[in-house]
Design a protein that fits this description.
single chain; alpha+beta; 3 domains; eight-stranded antiparallel sheet; three-stranded antiparallel sheet
Length: about 500
């Protein structure tokens, strides 16, 4: 017993070091699992993975464990990615680094041959990463694109306005809850696990995984179509309010059952008993194989010591980066409204309601036009001296409860100037155009991902500077090019007065 504890001590030390190193990534991931129903299943991923590894204990005990030192390179890559993510508060990168390092860690310790035995459980651990919410807008579009032709084929008159569907009996919005993202992610995880358990050949496994990806997307479109159809047939008496959730839950349960039935039809049949392959006495002997019979080459103490040293070094490096970041003196506003060659009447913007509540300074108001219909609204959220997070999922350029996105594209102001333009619509059919860009270190950014990565890189180099989002908006039913040309003039004037 004491010998087994001594042998297990280096491995335990590795997992303790891993837990301490990636503690912040683990905590933030668990918080997301608990809060978002999309990722509730992630609580089961790691336990299932280790259970699948436990089922392979007999095969593993017959393998020779040879530490693969080449895996120190990708492990160092995950540590670098994790440091980058913590400095920039990029949760997705943080979670990828955390849960990619765990299977790499096990692979490093047991070596290539043993890792092949448990290849799927190691791969399955990656489903712990809470990823997929970014697909919601695309799934909303796909669902709407599929539902509209189905309604037209049924003879139901329908008018599509963005994500709104108007039928004679009422209006429906294909909202985020109707995107089917929760069922899609769960179906993909289930499809991978079911394919591993049920099929022996890789082509069959890949085929079933593809089915688990396609079926929920089509099923969600049918669900939306069914809800609108029921509302049409019952004059909105049913399929409204809580009925969305009830019908949706029942339908998805049926689709999941259908997916299982498809899998059962394709399942590889195995013989119940085969004396040539196994006997009860052999099974007992196989289960009784102890860890002592496992052949271990190289020194496990050396391999574990290298990993612990690597983790400890990363902790000190991360502490050094976060504690010694040089903060530049950038306390002035990027845009001074008083210096602009036009008058901005400062007042809260109530209609499109941009929300950057954690900004250091918010400037908002109206630029008066020739008449009230030509008024242009201005919004600037500044983050001074690198404080706060300009790029954050908490920041909203418009209220999603009041507006639906129709168009998002990049437009040119001059030959060397580009900004982002979006078009949104209200439930009443009122259109609004918003032109915006990000300002950082004297440079203009239209892609928030590029800006976030650049900000993080500068922070790792010890440089933090003021940043801001600048947006101009106009509510109008005029031709889009006419509206944009009216706003472009103000964009040029603002950019000419921006402080580097």
């Amino acid at each position: 017993m004491i010998k087994q504890i001594i042998k297990a001590a280096p491995v335990v030390a590795i997992f303790i070091a891993w837990f301490y190193t990636y503690y912040q990534g683990l905590v933030t991931a668990v918080n997301i699992w608990a809060i978002s129903e999309i990722f509730n299943h992630c609580f089961l991923v790691i336990p299932i993975s280790f259970f699948l590894i436990y089922q392979k204990r007999a095969q593993l005990s017959q393998q020779t464990f040879v530490a693969n030192y080449w895996l120190l390179l990708p492990l160092m890559g995950t540590l670098l990615l994790y440091t980058f993510a913590v400095v920039g508060d990029i949760r997705l990168f943080m979670h990828i680094a955390t849960f990619a390092s765990l299977p790499l860690l096990i692979w490093f310790v047991i070596g290539n041959q043993a890792a092949k035995v448990i290849a799927f459980p190691l791969y399955f651990m990656l489903f712990s990463v809470p990823f997929g919410e970014q697909l919601i807008p695309y799934l909303q579009e796909i669902t709407t694109d599929l539902a509209v032709p189905l309604l037209e084929m049924t003879g139901i008159p329908v008018y599509r306005n963005g994500l709104y569907l108007d039928i004679p009996e009422g209006r429906f919005l294909v909202a985020e809850a109707c995107s089917g993202i929760s069922f899609l992610i769960t179906s993909i995880v289930f499809g991978n696990l079911y394919a591993y358990v049920s099929f022996n050949r890789l082509p069959k496994r890949l085929f079933f995984i593809c089915i688990s990806l396609i079926v929920p997307i089509i099923a969600n479109a049918l669900r939306v179509y069914g809800i609108v159809l029921i509302a049409h047939l019952t004059d909105m008496e049913h399929a409204a309010g809580a009925d969305h959730l009830i019908y949706g839950g029942v339908f998805f349960a049926f689709v999941l059952f259908l997916l299982i039935m498809i899998g059962e039809r394709l399942r590889d049949r195995t013989e119940v008993a085969n004396p040539q392959k196994s006997t009860p006495s052999e099974d007992i002997n196989e289960k009784s194989i102890s860890v002592d019979s496992t052949s271990v080459k190289n020194s496990p103490v050396m391999a574990c010591s290298l990993l612990v040293l690597l983790f400890v070094s990363q902790v000190f490096w991360l502490s050094s980066v976060t504690n010694n970041k040089a903060t530049l003196t950038g306390d002035e506003l990027i845009v001074d409204l008083r210096a602009l060659p036009f008058v901005v009447k400062e007042k809260p913007l109530q209609k499109w309601r941009p929300d950057f509540s954690k900004a250091s300074n918010i400037q908002q108001g109206v630029i008066k036009g020739a008449n009230n219909l030509d008024n242009i609204e201005l919004f600037i959220a500044s983050y001074l001296g690198g404080e706060g997070e300009l790029i954050s999922s908490m920041n909203k350029l418009y209220s999603a409860n009041r507006w639906t996105l129709i168009q998002n594209r990049q437009i040119s102001i001059d030959e060397d100037k580009e900004i982002q333009q979006i078009k949104i619509v209200s439930p009443s059919g009122q259109y609004r155009y918003i032109l915006y860009w990000y300002q950082f270190s004297g440079e203009v950014f239209t892609n928030k991902i590029k800006l976030k990565l650049y900000q993080t890189l500068m922070a790792m180099l010890g440089q933090t500077q003021s940043s801001a989002i600048i947006a101009l908006s106009m509510e109008s039913d005029k031709d889009m090019e006419v509206v944009i040309s009216m706003i472009k003039n103000k964009v040029n004037l603002i950019q000419d007065n921006i402080k580097d």
